[in-house]
Write a structure and sequence with these properties.
Shape: globular
Radius of gyration: 18 Å
Strand content: under 5%
Number of helices: 13
Helix content: 55-70%
Largest sheet: none
Organism: Streptomyces djakartensis
Structural class: mainly alpha
Protein name: Peptidase
Distance between the termini: 37 Å
Number of strands: 0
InterPro entries: MPAB, MPAB/Lcp_cat_dom
Number of domains: 1
Order of helices and strands: HHHHHHHHHHHHH
Low-confidence stretches: 284-292
Length: 292
């Protein structure tokens, strides 16, 4: 198979009718590493909205059970991608998502914003660091996929196009990104988790590298000291070079789903989708995001 053969295959498909299949091919064959990093960043962005970050801190899911929260989020969302909305696995995953949050008071605006991060952040990441830019078919398919997921989750007034998703995200961040002490604890815990996946001597370098990939608005909201301009340039260049290297490799012949990521640490003996996720915490006034 030639390097761009799968892209040509995607372009022959209907981005509306075949949206989930196109999205699956893009995620599991074309950009598995990039989608993992981009969706990590998408969730990380949500902490900078105080109504989200503060409540995540109150539930303690991302400060005391960080690895489990990471694993469960990836696995539940991955089940929908791998098996499709009509499958028993996807229905179980979405049911578990909705069960987790049925008892919480979640604003429509926060739910819609989080959905926007799933659509916008991967495109921006892949266009900047991937081995090629996303095609229009892939962009439209991503929009259709997450609009469908949003409807299953009861989210209202979902944007209809990528451009509307992007405008919604940018406007919401401009209006709501702000400092919050509890949100900073959630951000720190997530950074600690990501650096814990690697040998201890690399922790400081990795933390600086992650910060170098964050934009100024996010760094400002968390009050992180920005890495130097030289460090940011070096890190971003290194990630772009990785994408150029992937471009020279033969196309992936077998799919790679999120459940296969080595960062998933919590279930060495397997898992049941129905057992994943959290339960409402007594005394917490609301859940920040309508997602696993």
């Amino acid at each position: 198979m030639k390097r761009f053969a799968r892209l040509e295959q995607l372009r022959r498909m209907d981005p509306h009718r075949d949206a989930t299949e196109i999205y699956r091919l893009s995620v599991a064959y074309e950009f598995p590493w990039d989608y993992t990093r981009a969706l990590e960043l998408a969730l990380y962005r949500t902490y900078a909205v105080p109504s989200i970050g503060r409540l995540l801190a109150e539930t303690a899911e991302l400060t005391e059970r960080t690895q489990k929260r990471y694993d469960d989020t990836a696995l539940l969302l991955d089940a929908v991608v791998e098996h499709g909305f009509g499958s028993d696995e996807a229905k179980t995953a979405i049911r578990r998502i909705n069960q987790m949050h049925r008892g919480y008071d979640i604003s429509d605006e926060d739910m819609r914003y989080v959905l926007c991060t799933f659509v916008v952040t991967p495109k921006r990441w892949i266009d900047a660091y991937g081995w090629r830019r996303m095609s229009r078919h892939e962009i439209v398919a991503s929009v259709v996929h997450y609009r469908t997921l949003g409807r299953h989750m009861g989210i209202k007034d979902i944007p209809e196009t990528y451009e509307e998703f992007e405008s919604c995200l940018d406007a919401y961040e401009a209006a709501h990104f702000a400092w919050d002490e509890d949100a900073r604890r959630v951000a720190d815990a997530t950074l600690d988790l990501m650096t814990s996946w690697y040998p201890r001597p690399l922790a400081s370098v990795l933390r600086t590298s992650i910060l170098a990939l964050l934009d100024d608005s996010l760094l400002s909201a968390f009050r992180y000291t920005p890495p130097s301009a030289a460090t940011r340039a070096w890190v971003r260049r290194a990630v772009r070079l990785r994408g150029r290297g992937v471009r020279l490799l033969p196309p992936r012949r077998a799919p790679h789903f999120a459940r296969q990521n080595w960062e998933i640490k919590g279930y060495p003996y397997g898992y049941r989708l129905a057992d994943l996720g959290t339960r409402p915490v007594p005394g917490v006034r609301g859940c920040p995001v309508r997602q696993p």
